[in-house]
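re the bet — no i am not wrong, look at it urself. input seq straight from the record:
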Amino acid sequence: MTLRHARRLGGATVVALAAGLLAAPGAAAVPGTAVTDPKAVPAPGFTSTGLHTDACDDTTAPGWLEVANPVLTVSATSPQVRFKLWDDSTPEHDKIVDTAADVTGGAAKLATGDLMDGHSYSWQAWPEYSPGSGKPTPTCHFKVDLTHPGLSVSSTDFPESGSGTTPGKYAGENGVFTLKGLDAAPAGGEASGVACYQYVLNGSLGVGWDCASGRTVKAGADGTAQLTLKPRDWGTNILTVQAMDNAGNVSQPLTYSFYAPWDSRPKPAVPGDVDGDAVPDILLPDAQGNLQIISAAATDTTPTSTIPAALAPLHAGWQDDLVLHRGWANVHGPGDDLLVRSQGNPQVLYSYANWQKGDFSREYPTVVYKPSRCVDAAANTIPCPEGYNDEDWSDVDQIVAVGSRHKGSTPAWPGLLAVEHGKLYAYVEALRSYQAAQPIATTGDWSGYDLIAPGADASGNLTLWARERATGALHAYPVIRQDNGLLDFSALADPSANVVATGFTAAAYPTLGSSGDGDGDGKPDLWAVTADRHLVTFSGWSAPKDLGALR
């Protein structure tokens, strides 16, 4: 009698074959013959994690297939291979395939007939000989889900248009949208469950996507997800969503129309804020070259919005560009303008005007010319140091925007600090230009330091931070605003002074920056990108918090 035994995998009972079934009845095994490397094509898996598995053991949970007729394949040293397939979702665990296939080029394959939606299957293969059989494969397992999921969208912050409910948020504010998937199981079967959602606000969904693509959000165990979005423009907005289950089936796109009211309440201009919500932002490129605007108060790496790759200086993406923003004093309303230098064109520094809360598409960037005149600490004109490039920005190794030296609401660009041939320079700002370069007298070489601009402190004084690449030490230098409006850079005389923390090595944190006061405690904060592209935020320069992988 053939015996079977049940096993538990991921909460579902599947059936494995007992050892008595592994050899053909009444036949002796032929030594040296075997079938190996059993695989189902396409590969069973879970779109929620990206894991693919043939589950050829007693512990691995079977993966899902979105096709009704997978192909079973093995490598073999025999002329023929016998395939057997069981439907484990039937009461008697019916054997539905028992057939031989020829071996060609060391491999055999069998295309199954149409399998049942929601059913679990196990299969095995033997080398077929007369009169005996060799060593079989282990028993492998998969499940089938052929049903496309459904979904719904709801929000109390931005209710659906026509619902008669008043929105609880304004344009420019974050709103929470609840995405709820429906992946119904067929009678007598099992559903793979909703894995993730693709979404886009006022745009078109991508094609050929998966759960690791941009603009996706993972579903929880109950198939729902909370999506936080910020509608930038007042009026009617359209959120388009599509669900994917663990087998890879996708739903029909769902459009959710909602109204975002105009926010007439005045908002303060906060240094480091780009999208006009009075919270500083972190600007980093994504894998597609778009520039992500990530709130410094975020709990994950989901951007509040992105600046398209085509708007970069060379129209080829922001991934190699240096983007500066810090402390613009109401030049174009709430939200920093940008200064950008492209690695593909390092001679030029571009200015991007922020007319509409992070929307930089309304006009072309303008060129910012490098000052050809040098001044001393008292603003007296002096000869520029030997080697200073008074024509363009190509010799500048590093540059940061440290913030405005002006108090109150006087419009001005931020002051700049830059390293050129190891020497440190400050650039004195005017309304929309830089008047002069001020050499900073130092006793050391700044070429081994990464400059970081945390912005102004609670008293309005500026600060420069610097990471020493060789040691990972973090330095902090106060830059005091004097009564005459000029800045005192005397604390920058020795770059090796003023160590405030250690451990910020270039190996651990290839990219290091500051959002200003990201956590709202009145003190500037550090952020970093790790070698594996995780975004880490700090309170000051301590208490690191990993926000997850960047898109």
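see?? The first strand starts at residue 4 and ends at 9. told u. also The chain has a mean pLDDT of 86. so pay up
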